[in-house]
Amino acid sequence: MRAKTPTIAALLATTLLACQASLAALSGQVVIKDFMFVPTTLTVKAGTTVTWANQDEEPHTVYSDTGLFRSSAIDTGEAFSFRFDTPGTYHFVCTIHPRMVGTIVVE
Amino acid sequence: MADQKQLHTRRAALGCMAFGGAGTLFAIAGGVLTPIDLAVAAASPSALARVGKPLFVQISDTHIGFNKDANPDVSGTLARSIDLVNAMSEQPALIIHTGDITHLSRPAEFDTARQLFSRLRATEMHTVPGEHDTSDAGVTEYFSRFGQASDNRGYYSFDHGGVHFVGLVNVLRFRPGGLGTLGDEQLAWVTADLKGRSSSTPLVVFAHMPLWTIYEPWGWGTGDSGALMDQLRRFGSVSVLNGHIHQIVQKVEGNIRFHTARSTAYPQPEAGVGSGPGPLKVPAEELARMLGVTSVTETRHHALGLTDTTLA
Known about the structure:
The complex is a heterodimer of chains A (107) and B (312).
Chain A: H1 4-25, E1 27-33, E2 36-38, E3 41-44, E4 48-54, E5 63-64, E6 79-84, E7 88-93, E8 101-106
Parallel strand pairs in A: 1-4, 3-8
Antiparallel strand pairs in A: 1-2, 4-6, 5-7, 7-8
Chain B: H1 4-15, E1 24-29, E2 32-37, H2 48-51, E3 54-59, H3 74-86, E4 94-97, H4 107-117, E5 124-127, H5 141-146, E6 156-160, E7 163-167, H6 184-194, E8 203-206, H7 225-232, E9 238-242, E10 250-253, E11 256-260, H8 284-287, E12 292-300, E13 303-310
Parallel strand pairs in B: 3-4, 4-5, 7-8, 8-9, 9-11
Antiparallel strand pairs in B: 1-2, 1-13, 3-12, 6-7, 10-11, 12-13
Helix pairs in contact in B: 3-4, 6-7
């Protein structure tokens, strides 16, 4: 048993890494901080799930100008996700602070 | 404009309306604004009658659900604000809430707010939504509770005591990167609502975001408010009341007086100070002096007086 443990651990680690790698390929993140979406424009591949993570003291929302997606208020420490399956350019705005705008480019 | 003797009488009268808070009262007649510092006003109960009875109290930006450092107990400060209003010797006929009732548009927040409001001695309350009240994905929480007065449009008007009140919504038709928006449909409704009304009717127009541009980079204004002002200009006494910026800013333009109210929850920085209009953390002992309500009194025919009162 003792001899096998590292092997299993290594296997698990490899699997985890592989999972993380495959997740990384299909996930993108926009951080919300200081009344800004960072990055302002995020380019991802089709099928990617984009997560908006609010690290600001204020709640924010993510609202697509075409109505494709709309979050409820995202409080400090919360996040909102949406999966982009179709290539295109998607603009979004925070409905609470409409000066905050951003774009997701799906290739 | 009031002569000096009248002014002193009014000052005396206002002293007894300070109900424990430092504030400033604005008596307005024919569009002339007369600020009176309550801190130097002398109390004289016999002169109170000259000031008239309180018409309504404006409560704003209660942000129920907010729990950050700037004020971990917004329910407590709203309760204290309500105590302040309930302690007024003569009760206002109405309460007007100029939006951001809640912080995150969540059902539990609306329910807590409603529970607190039910303690008000004045039972008639009118509201307009703030952008924090309409931030749920379906934009249904505010309207399911407060939409009835306006057929779910959000904007509406009513009359009370000879004053025509117009509640407007400038937080729904937002434009990316820009200011609040009223929209053509609402502007057409205002035009129809005011058409045929005598110019001597005192108007109180209220909305959440300022109806004049205070600071464009932070969206502190309403992009198409010019068309609204064109409708208001012919009236002899217009009070435009807003919230949103959690501090008092005011100006007078002709017969139109603009005034923003304090929040009962937390202060915000002055325009352009810091990275954005977020909660301003101040020492605990200073907080109560930056929170409060606005009471509006009929000073005499066609004249309304505003008193801002803080929690300390």
